[in-house]
Design a protein that fits this description.
Shape: globular
Number of helices: 11
Structural class: alpha+beta
Distance between the termini: 39 Å
Helix content: 25-40%
Largest sheet: 5 strands, antiparallel
Number of strands: 10
Radius of gyration: 19 Å
Amino acid sequence: MNKRHLTGILAIGAAASLALAGCATGNQAAGGSQEGGEDSLGTITLGYLPSWTDGLSTAYLLEDQLQKAGYTVKMQELTEAGPLYAGLAQGDVDIYPSAWPELTHKSYMDKYGDKIDDLGAYYEGAKLTIAVPDYVDIDSIDDLKANADRFGGKIYGIEPGAGLTKQTQESMLPGYGLEDTYELVTSSTAAMLTELDSAEAAQRDIVVTSWRPFWANDRYNLKDLEDPKGAMGEAEALHFLATDGFKEEYPEAAELIAGITLDDEQYASLEDTVVNKYGEGKYAEAIDEWLTENPDAYDTIVTD
């Protein structure tokens, strides 16, 4: 395993191990929030799941941009999507910087949506997947049933409360008749990546739950299995969500955030720079570099 290969796993694992549900952190060492002064336009709390690197990347992008615009930003780490949506609805969290409200998190939106403001989509074409390394010679979820022994009867997943986990358990496994032949192993994104890294190093067969966009797809040359039954759902957009009333309380911040849209190349470079090139403790520096290399990434970009 090369050094760069290991860096991404360590970054994810360390971030995940620090995350406690509902536990606010100062994140000073990671470029986190600073105390507001008399000139602050107000304090905005960003809630994110550090092991889900789409939200990790955009959380620190928003922290940088909002601080430059004059706001005090507090970062709050959680470990599951459910408490994050609840915190958003209750006003304990102001912004969820990378939500999947259209399909993956629809159940949370059904429960809390009337207390949440949608600030807009920043990325189109996000997708839940079942994937294998490209050296594995199967191409469809349909092929899994006859090959359970090759995979030890296991599909490695992420956090139990993730929308991806629910979709796999409630739709994909029964849809393809895999309930009796496969166990969905859930723990954390970091644990899934550790299993994937070990399997890839040994060129061993493995099947995992994944999603796009996600830096690990390229790092491990993952191949999405075809889904002829559509059990993993259609593509959807990633959104910035806010607590109810945020647009009225912070209209300038809401306008700034709503103006952020990223294409495939921009998003991939953002996530790779934050997670792999810099990693934990250096997120602010990662955002500085990304903004320097992408000065015209979106219309509302804030410079120094």
